[in-house]
Amino acid sequence: MRVIAGKFKSRPLHSLAGMKTRPTSDRLRETLFNVLTAGNPSALEGSVWLDIFAGTGAVGIEALSRGAQRVTFIDKAPAAVRVIRENLKSLGVTEGFEIIDHEASRALRLYGEKGLAADYVFVDPPYASHDAYEEVLALLAQSILNQGAIVIAEHVKRHDPGEAFGAMRRYRKLVQGDSGLSFYRLE
After folding, report:
1. Cβ contacts of residue 155 below 8 Å, gap of 6+?
2. Buried b vs exposed e over 116-149: b needs ≥16 C-beta within 10 Å?
3. 55 near 85, Cβ under 8 Å?
4. For residue 39, what pLDDT is reported?
5. What per-residue confidence (pLDDT) applies to 20?
6. Are 86 and 47 within 8 A, CB to CB?
7. pLDDT per 10-residue tile (average), the chain, 187 residues
8. What is 31-186's CATH topology?
9. Of 104, 174, 166, which is closest to residue 133 (Cα–Cα)?
10. Could you tell me how far CA 68 lies from the centroid of its own chain?
11. Quick one: which of 77, 186, 78 has its CA closest to 124?
12. With contact defined as beta carbons under 8 Å apart, do 44 and 127 qualify?
């Protein structure tokens, strides 16, 4: 696993041992960021990100590498939080991030209570946690999104996380291998 592009291009990232964490593959991450920057390579400059169920932090780190101003990593697993910290340290990242080590819905409430809002949100719960998609996407539709924000949910291709959550609607779905990406925004 490595950073795909930007100032940390080709730098390796640590992963978690075992099968409990399924990091977003390099290929799927590359597809994700190609979609987000299509026609505008500087589209992510100065953006604010949430990486929910962050695991290794690879998506949020990719965003930082490509010019995001701030990334908040959310994961409740102590091993994941350690790996995120290791990855940031190995890249020399000392600012522009926050790590919230709580369950996702609680972390989102804390984030909102601080009056913060995001431009991009990446949601990648364990594939079998179908309820987590619904809970987190519904919470995101209620608050903490800036005008024009994009929410991306990674999921197994056989699971459809849903077309709409409140005023948030899916506008694009991509499938690559066994994984899918659903893109949402507020209407």
Report:
1. 127, 133, 161, 179, 180, 181, 182
2. bebbbbbbbbebeebebbebbbebbbeebbeeeb
3. no
4. 87
5. 56
6. no
7. 94 79 84 94 95 96 98 96 97 97 94 93 89 94 92 94 96 95 95
8. Rossmann fold (3.40.50)
9. 104
10. 12
11. 77
12. no
Spatial neighbors of 60 by CB under 8 A, at least 6 apart, are 49, 51, 54, 68, 71, 72, 73, 84, 97, 122
Residue in this structure with the two tokens 């994961």, named with its chain if needed: 75
159 closest CA partner among 187, 138, 128: 128
